[in-house]
Write a structure and sequence with these properties.
single chain, 367 residues, alpha+beta, Jelly Rolls, 2 domains, eight-stranded antiparallel sheet, six-stranded antiparallel sheet, 19% helix, 32% strand
Length: 367
């Protein structure tokens, strides 16, 4: 078995489906992406792609091992990416990555389909997580909008404060669960397919209903629950603040007032083309110039397009079309919904498509 696992470290690895329970409903758009015959919303509205992170769902919804991605390969028993990383960290993650982050993947990739508005919440900063959660990662994230549901007329996200909200006033809103006021003091930002929103740790936020996104984030499942009632679960006060005193946890919230112009300039990211190869293009959707935490690119392949790991791993999601990924040891068929983990040791590889292939490429924290 160990010999077979070592062999896997030099080739891209197909990933098995990895749906995760959450406190809201959705997921039909994930089913559609993957060609499921009867797409349905459920309590599993997220797919964690190439994840090495345990989902920390509340109460009886906690299941050991939930969230850990499995590879889809010809091996005797299922094996998680986390297991392979721990056995062969440099081959999978890259030597510089391991030197910087150890065996942490330093990234969590999600497909997230919200049939309803997510509750208002926030995430801790790196500094807070280091001081109070024994973690070198907080939870900065970014949303890459793939589609919005056709029955939603004005897709939106809520993010950041648009007016001065003193901490005492916010605590009062929170304790009263005055959701209308909590929403009113935040920016409501219209979005559409192609929009990119950068969500710095500490900012209060919520995703509007009807959103299908790729989410990149730091590799934790920390959430500060500000709005406690949602369709699948009602959070107690004790469950809302990361197991810490309320005032301590709320101290990590970012109360900076953003103007509409600052939201557009700092939190809404404009993609740009970074590479052309024949008729193929690679666009930077969000890069390390915005955050050291992750990067996301979109490749549009017409014919062929070369790529390379450059000593770091990546996670690929095929968004549309069909084709193949050709590497030193073989070839992987790609189609809409295929998910691939590309180890750092793979080196050079080529995408090929007779017509068109659209691929989302996710990169971990900068090493």
């Amino acid at each position: 078995m160990n010999d077979r696992l070592r062999e896997l470290t030099t080739s891209p690895m197909l990933l098995a489906p990895n749906r995760v329970w959450r406190m809201y409903k959705g997921g039909a758009m994930i089913d559609r992406l993957k060609g499921v015959a009867d797409p349905m919303d459920s309590e599993f509205p997220e797919e964690w792609v190439g994840s090495t992170v345990q989902a920390s769902n509340p109460g009886t919804h906690y299941r050991q091992g939930e969230g850990l991605a499995l590879i889809s390969a010809n091996i005797p028993e299922p094996v998680s990416i986390k297991t392979i990383v721990e056995r062969y960290p440099e081959e999978i993650l890259g030597a510089q990555h391991v030197k910087t982050y150890g065996t942490s993947s330093a990234l969590l990739v999600k497909l997230l389909d919200a049939a309803e508005r997510l509750i208002i919440h926030a995430h801790p900063t790196k500094a807070f997580a280091k001081d109070h959660l024994n973690s070198c990662f907080g939870k900065t994230e970014a949303w890459f909008v793939l589609e919005t549901r056709p029955d939603v007329e004005e897709p939106y996200v809520l993010i950041a404060f648009k007016e001065d909200v003193p901490r005492q006033r916010y605590r009062e809103m929170l304790n009263k669960q005055d959701i209308n006021e909590m929403m009113r003091v935040m920016h409501r930002v219209p979005v559409k397919a192609g929009s990119v929103v950068y969500v710095k740790a500490g900012l209060p936020h919520a995703i509007g209903e009807g959103m299908f996104i790729v989410e990149l984030q730091e590799p934790t499942d920390y959430s500060i629950i500000l709005e406690r009632s949602c369709s699948n679960y009602n959070f107690s006060v004790e469950e809302s603040f990361l197991g810490l005193p309320q005032d301590l946890t709320l101290s990590t919230l970012d109360h900076r007032v953003y103007s509409p112009e600052e939201v557009q300039n700092e939190l809404v990211i404009k993609p740009h083309v970074v590479r052309r190869e024949g008729e193929s293009t690679e666009s930077r959707l969000l890069g390390y110039e915005t955050t050291e935490c992750f990067a996301g690119n979109r490749l549009e392949i017409v014919g062929e397009m070369s790529d390379a790991t450059n000593g770091r791993y990546s996670v690929l999601i095929v968004l549309d079309g069909e084709g193949s990924l050709i590497h030193a040891h073989g070839e992987i068929a790609l189609k809409r919904g295929t998910e691939v983990f590309v180890p750092a040791s793979v080196g050079q590889y080529v995408f090929r498509s007779n017509k068109h292939l659209s691929v989302f490429k996710c990169l971990p924290a900068q090493a």
